[in-house]
Amino acid sequence: MGETVTLSTMDVLNHSLREQFEAFLDEHRRMINACLDGLTEEQVRRSLVPSRTTLLGLVKHATFVEKVWFDEAVTCRPRAEIGIPATPDESFILDETDTIAGIQQAHREACEASRQATASLALDDLLPGNRRGPIPLRWVYLHVIRELAQHAGHADILREQLLARS
Question: Which pLDDT tens digit goes with each residue over 108-153?
Fold first, then answer.
């Protein structure tokens, strides 16, 4: 699988709305994936808040988000068939086999699969597999950008806390 060429958000200033959405989406995907860089396995598993949120869990959850919005919503396949948890909360749960390298690779692969799943779709095409009913791709892009931006902010704070303790 080749490296995906992504444009920066400033590179797409005068491009189509689709290219702008995808540039912002890819920027947030990269930020989420990179939050693990340079940290130890112990650090990324460390719980600093009362919820299940850890840095490694955030990236694992971001992989779940990709599969919900760009696999389940596009293909109508059930979550069990896709191999993802039934609920968002469960997607943060880590097992002993989860590692930085494995979770980052799974996230990159999910992002690439998302790009491929939407490549032939138009922004106004309806994705039939969402639990709320058919939703246009443009809404899904906006929703996922918002969700990843929120989680990137969480990751920044958690990473800052971890580095301050080192």
Answer: 999 999 999 999 999 999 999 988 899 999 999 999 999 999 999 9
Domains of the chain, earliest start first? 17-153 (1.20.120.450)
d(CA 12, CA 103): 29
Q: What is the pTM of this model?
A: 0.91
Instruction: Name the nearest CA neighbour of 91 among 55, 65, 109, 69.
Output: 65
**Which residues of the chain have a pLDDT value below 70?**
1-10, 12-13
Contacts of 98 (CB under 8 A, 6+ apart): 56, 60
Helix (H, G, I), strand (E, B) or coil at 9: coil
**127 beta partners:** 135
**Side chain identity at 31, as an amino acid letter?**
M
